[in-house]
Design a protein that fits this description.
Strand order of the largest sheet: 3-2-1-4-5
Number of domains: 2
Largest sheet: 5 strands, mixed
Order of helices and strands: EEEHEHEHEEEHHHHHHEHHH
Strand content: 15-25%
CATH class of the largest domain: Alpha Beta
Organism: Zymomonas mobilis subsp. mobilis (strain ATCC 10988 / DSM 424 / LMG 404 / NCIMB 8938 / NRRL B-806 / ZM1)
Protein name: ATPase BadF/BadG/BcrA/BcrD type
InterPro entries: ATPase_BadF, ATPase_NBD, Euk-type_GlcNAc_Kinase
Pfam families: BcrAD_BadFG
Structural class: alpha/beta
Length: 286
């Protein structure tokens, strides 16, 4: 029996899906964040954990892994040395491939055909495939990049809330909520910042969307700035010559109503998710 495993390792969660050769789902699992930022020593055990959980659900043990063809899409895989380090790890699988989470998302969205995606999750990145060649836009990592992502929304929330605390801009219900989250302890907020990850910042993203819908002026301004980044991404993507582009990630649906009509009408629905893309990369024929 031949099995196919797809894994999507991102900034907020790591998911796996195991199928048979007919594409029938046998097992799946989800754990917390597992991306390049945490380093190979921490990443590898998490990849194996999410694999084992999906296999256990399917009734497979580790002796069966030699019949599994696997593909892992990992956020931040372009970090120097990471792919080589992964490829040097002893593989328990029949075959294994590593790529970025953006590539598996693109492959899944277009069922392996040419197209583009803009991922809006904990981070953000655009991935373009034309004639089998790939190109990315953005995605250089938080905080220097990842505009309009969950982490970016959280960072903007903190920045605006501190300005409001200082009296440099008008306080709002939203900025007060952010400051109250830290018990009105600004030094405590600064201490939190020293250790905060992109995932920590992204926890504030739903607050921004919620407050923006309610008309909070600060949250609304952050959303409008994010929309400008998103629309610029999409315009540049189509200038590259792609025929289809999908908006993907946890913030795709929340942002769709905010986009202008001339941008939203250019977007196509996704034909599959990132795990579908990983499974296609592993060799599964849909």
């Amino acid at each position: 029996m031949v099995y196919f495993l797809g894994v999507d390792a991102g900034g907020s969660h790591c998911r796996s899906r195991l199928t048979d050769q007919n594409g029938r789902i046998l097992g799946s699992a989800e754990i917390g964040a597992a991306n390049a930022r945490i380093g190979i020593a921490n990443l590898w055990p998490l990849l194996m954990q999410v694999t084992e959980l999906a296999c256990q659900e399917a009734g497979l043990n580790k002796n069966d892994w030699s019949s599994v063809h696997a593909a892992f899409g990992i956020a931040g895989l372009s970090r120097p040395g990471l792919q080589r380090a992964l490829e040097e790890m002893p593989s328990p699988f029949a075959a294994i491939r590593y790529t970025g989470d953006d590539e598996i998302a693109n492959i899944g969205a277009h069922r392996g055909h040419d197209g583009a995606i803009l991922i809006l999750g904990t981070g953000s990145i655009a991935h373009i495939r034309i004639d089998g060649k790939s190109e990315t836009l953005g995605g250089y990592g938080f905080p220097i990049s990842d505009e309009a992502s969950g982490a970016w929304l959280g960072l903007e929330s903190i920045r605006h809330s501190l300005r409001a605390y200082d009296g440099r801009i008008q306080k709002t219900i939203f900025t007060e909520r952010v400051i109250h989250h830290f018990s009105d302890d600004i030094l405590g907020l600064v201490a939190w910042m020293d250790a905060a990850t992109a995932t920590d910042y992204a926890l504030f993203a739903p607050w921004v969307i919620e407050a923006g819908i309610e008309g909070d002026p600060v949250a609304y301004s952050i959303i409008q700035k994010a929309v400008a980044y998103i629309e610029n991404f999409i315009e540049v993507i189509f200038q590259k010559g792609v025929a289809r582009c999908c908006l993907m990630g946890g913030l795709a649906a929340p942002f769709m109503p905010w986009l202008s009509n001339h941008i939203s009408c250019k977007l196509s629905p996704s034909q599959g998710d990132a795990l579908d893309g990983a499974l296609i990369l592993s060799g599964l024929k849909f």
